[in-house]
Amino acid sequence: MQVQIGCEFVYNAQVETHAVLQVEPQLEGGVRALDERWANVPQIAMSRYVDSFGNICRRTTMPAGRSVLHYDALLELPRVADPQCLDAPEVAPQALQNEALVFTLPSRFCPSQELANEAWRLFGSTPSGWTRVQTICDWVHNEITFGYDDTSPLVTAVDVFNRRAGVCRDFTHLAVTFCRALNIPARYVFGYLPDIDVPVAPEPMDFAAWMEVFLGGSWWTFDPRNNQARAGRVLIARGRDALDVAMVSTYGGPELVSMTVWADEAQP
């Protein structure tokens, strides 16, 4: 199938301001770019690099005044839902691959050491492996209320656990934190998620956050916010938490006037 994805950020800057953007999809798992382009106003130079997590990043410097950063792409990808492996086992810490170890550790928004007792109380007696991770997702999905007014960029998983409210970013941070507290490697992921084979969400389209969990020697997709396998998922970036994969990081204080995101199935 074909999916049209993209985003637009409008900024007002008092002075020239450097920025790093992560909005371009990772071309993996059968995802192919048929067309993609930047259309920035004014036209400003951009450079591309790949960060330590393998994410595509763009650097640019916005001039003083109004800037529009506009990215759009037409992708082709398989029309399949997230794969599952219900008997995938947990991997003991001593047997983990080196690159998975970092995703067992606490991070800025996922302080797993602070919720370790709660994680073991809630999920310690649950059968290990896929069932335990799915039980974590079920708990987060059922216990946390979705709401844009109940969060901020500084909210941690501990805050979400105490407040019982947040957005998909917060759902993911809490589930990642519980997994890590139980020595299960989990990484934060965000990307585009069109409404394919599901009811259209009432909220305006936004970036989506989910997680990847290491079980049975592979990374698997889990989505505590939606809590169901979905087709059309387009991954942008992976990291320890949202701090590693900010859509836009600005080195200064420009005013964000508006942000628009789109992700829709397109007719070939």
Question: How many individual helices?
Answer: 5
Mean pLDDT: 96
Strand content: 35-45%
Number of E-state strands: 14
Describe this structure in words.
With 268 residues, the chain is α+β, with helices and mostly antiparallel strands. The chain has five helices and 14 strands. The chain has two domains: 2-79 and 247-266, Sandwich (Immunoglobulin-like), CATH 2.60.40.2250; 93-243, C8orf32 fold. 18% of the residues lie in helices and 35% in strands. The strands form four sheets. The chain has a four-stranded antiparallel sheet, with no helix packed on it. Strands 4-5-2-13 form a four-stranded antiparallel sheet, with no helix packed on it. Helix 3 packs antiparallel against helix 5 (168-181) and helix 4 (157-163) packs across helix 5 (168-181). The longest helix is centred in the middle third of the chain and has 14 residues, at 130-143. The radius of gyration is 19 Å and the shape is globular. The chain starts with a strand and ends with a strand. The model has no long low-confidence stretch (mean pLDDT 96).
Keywords:
Immunoglobulin-like; 18% helix; 268 residues; 4-stranded antiparallel sheet; alpha+beta; single chain; C8orf32 fold; 5 helices
Chain-wise SSE layout:
Elements: E1 2-13, E2 17-21, E3 32-38, E4 46-50, E5 56-62, E6 65-76, H1 98-101, H2 116-123, H3 130-143, E7 145-146, H4 157-163, E8 165-166, H5 168-181, E9 186-192, E10 208-215, E11 218-222, E12 234-239, E13 248-251, E14 255-266
Parallel strand pairs: 7-8
Antiparallel strand pairs: 1-6, 1-14, 2-5, 2-13, 3-6, 4-5, 9-10, 9-12, 10-11
